[in-house]
Amino acid sequence: MNTPPLPDIRRTVTALSEPALIRLITEIDDNGPIPPRSTGRIFPDLTPQQIRHATEQAHTIGLIHTRVGGGLGLTESGILLAEVYDVTARWARRHAYPAPTGDFAGRVRHTFALLAEPRVHAALTAAEPSLGRTGAGIPLPEPEVVEPGLAGPWRLLMQWLRANPQAAGFAAGELAA
User: Fold this and answer.
1) Residue 154 Cα distances to 20, 57, 162, angstroms
2) So what's the pLDDT on residue 2?
3) Is residue 92 part of a domain?
4) Which residues constitute the domain of residue 153?
5) How many domains does the chain have?
């Protein structure tokens, strides 16, 4: 199965990189379902609008579901995205990317942006011929453009994107929130 086109990847990665969404998914992954009406207490630094937007986005993409009794839990897709976030943040921390210090959401956001850069994406796609080429016409980067180990987070992200085309539809504005 081919890798999604780079413009779709960039839009989707941007949507999946919203700090409130990253925090919502990882909070549920790390600590279990969020009880009804507890998001404000769990995320006191986020506005109700940010929490509402992240929750609506996660529902629309199919990352969370409302549990019996009203709490929020992760779907299988949400569990797998949490794993992509974890692997990405671990790579970023190990490589001090984008800086030696940073928070989890920031590391994920910056690394996702790096993975969607045309030259990096082209190099990683070329290294995985079974995934299909994208970005035709983009010159392949020098080997040093791709950091060691970056293929792991990239591969997981591409697998998740292929398995969840609804995320690209949401990012393109094709799905109603």
Assistant:
1) 22, 22, 12
2) 65
3) yes
4) 6-166
5) 1
Between CA 161 and CA 171 the distance in angstroms is 12
| Rama region for 5: left / alpha / beta (φ>0; ψ in -120 to 50; rest) | beta
Residue 176 included in any domain: no
Give the number of other CB atoms < 10 A from CB of residue 84.
22
CA count, 13 A, side-chain hemisphere, 108: 24
Of all residues in the chain, the percent with pLDDT exceeding 70 is 85
Which pTM does this prediction carry? 0.85
H helices present in the chain, as ranges: 6-16, 19-31, 39-42, 48-61, 76-94, 104-115, 118-127, 151-163, 165-171
- Tens-digit pLDDT profile for residues 49-85: 999 999 999 999 999 999 888 899 999 999 999 999 9
Q: What is the CATH number of the domain that holds 143?
A: 1.10.10
**146: nearest Cα among 163, 169, 123, 113:** 123
